[in-house]
Amino acid sequence: MEGMDHSHHDMGSMAPPPSMNGTTTMPHQKMMMHMTFFWGTTAEVLFSRWPGTKTGMYYVALLFVFALAVLVEWLSHCRIIKVGSGHVAAGLIQTLLHCLRVGLAYMVMLAVMSFNAGVFLVAVAGHTLGFLLFGSRVFRKPVEDEKGSDLPPMSC
């Protein structure tokens, strides 16, 4: 153990320090990664080089994130399983719906991790509209034997 110098194994030195504007660049990449919220239409959302530098595609990406968030809320409050369904079939459907809901919710979360303020706002707006439509009592028909949805709402 003598003579071993561990100073060059400092884990903190592996990541480049952020610059003054809150972004960081990797040594062998030309992409800039934001580490703080920013406004702008030049963001990468979910996929490499998507939506790209075309402003129109940025708005398509915003619409996609909005739709994903609404879909997550629908899956959180949908009632697909009919009363009297077999326990095994109902359990498998619940499991499939849960898997789909969690996967889509993680996609929304990863989109928000782009740190683009527009993406953040449309994700929140999508969850809000989805909850208003599918989770609140505003548009729900009163049901006599209301036992709740197939899936409990996502817990934060």
Automatic annotation (TrEMBL):
It is a multi-pass membrane protein. It comes from the Eukaryota. Keywords: Copper, Copper transport, Ion transport, Membrane, Transmembrane, Transmembrane helix, Transport. Residues 1-11 have a biased composition (Basic and acidic residues). Coiled coil: none annotated. GO terms for cellular component: plasma membrane. Residues 1-20 are annotated as: Disordered. One of its GO terms (molecular function) is copper ion transmembrane transporter activity. It is found in: Membrane. The chain crosses the membrane at residues 57-76. Belongs to the copper transporter (Ctr) (TC 1.A.56) family. SLC31A subfamily. This is Copper transport protein. It comes from Rosa chinensis.
